[in-house]
Amino acid sequence: MPVRGQLTLFHLRGIRIAVDYSWFLILFLLIWWLSDDYRQVLGEDQDSTTPYLLAVVAALAFFGSILLHELGHAVVAIRNGIPISDITLWLFGGVARMTKDSDSAKTEFKIAVAGPLVSLLIAVAAGGAGIAAAGGADRFWEAMTLEDDAGVSGPVAVLASLTSVNVAVLLFNLLPAFPLDGGRIARAIAWGVSGNRNRATKFAAVIGQGFAYGFIALGMVMLVSVDVVGGIWLAIIGFILAQAARGSFVQSEFSSRIEGIRVADVMDAEPVAIPEDASIERALDEFFLRYRWPWFPVVDASERFRGLLVREAADAVPEPDRIARLVREVYETDASGTLRVRDDDPLESLLGNDALRRLGGLAAVDAEGRLRGVITADQVGRALRDALSGGADAGGGPAGP
What we know:
By secondary structure, the chain is of the alpha/beta class. It has two domains: 6-174, no CATH class; 263-389, CBS-domain. Helix content is 55%, strand content 14%. The protein contains 13 helices and eleven strands. The chain has helices at 22-42, 50-79, 105-134, 137-144, 154-173, 181-194, 197-224, 228-257, 263-266, 280-291, 311-315, 354-359, 377-389; strands at residues 6-12, 15-20, 84-90, 93-98, 274-275, 295-299, 305-310, 332-333, 340-342, 361-365, 371-376. The strands form three sheets. Strands 1-2-3-4 form a four-stranded mixed sheet. The chain is globular, with a radius of gyration of 25 Å.
């Protein structure tokens, strides 16, 4: 489902790759800045179009490297059983959205370090190719430091900027400022030492807030002294980091209150599901018209969860075809695993779950993938309210999606 304010580019193995509309602003600014840099390095005059063409190539290569950085996180997350719903490029880089949090400090560390490793590999590869093409490290260094008329070709200048930007991305992301990669690495280490994820998250969030306020303060100093644009930029980054760190701290507070509660303790353990071999007419008559729910889980003959049938998809089938068309032909498959949750997962793993927020509920399955229940956003909210108020019963009664 498209997200408001975002443009979907393509899907890669079930992961939606998108750009936020703010990305176009930074793309324009990056092309503008880089064209001046290339004009300086190549010694081109103001009428030459070469710097602009190189700037477009370099800007797209930069965002390509950011996408690869996020795909590094995504690949490791998926290999550790954590589905990725989407990767979005935006004003300040990119973000790979996990459907649930890491289940161990080791997994958290591996996911967090994967992105910086990709940036390091890109920087090494671009730098090595640039040095070879430039005929030596000295001349390539002059291109990286924007020396006037450095005597290098356009492709070498592009490789120099790609190397520089990936080194900058690597160093910035390794700052121990949660939720940057360095902050997540710090959380993983603290988690491994303490054995408590919530305590580690609070520790990392406090460090993240400290760095964020430092960025804001430094940005204000730059604003009134040396660099107005850089000061504003740094202050905005600090503000965004402060908000994100604060949100992580609050979420960890919630998590500590519901620690020990499992999905099975809260879910509706008697879900209504549609067989995948049922006709669309039967699905509409016996399920949607009877229960008035917006979607139903779909199961196979062994009661294994297959996906969701949404009312709009069923209604879209022409009325004369509804007897012959089967549910398996139109339901939304769960190839990425974002529409389900394990019934033995901790309830806190659902906090911030995008699919739960989008659909209002998720299918709860056992280790073999059989449908065991439905967990709704209302049930999660009720459990949170009970935990915060000190209620003894955090469970919820049967409810539809």
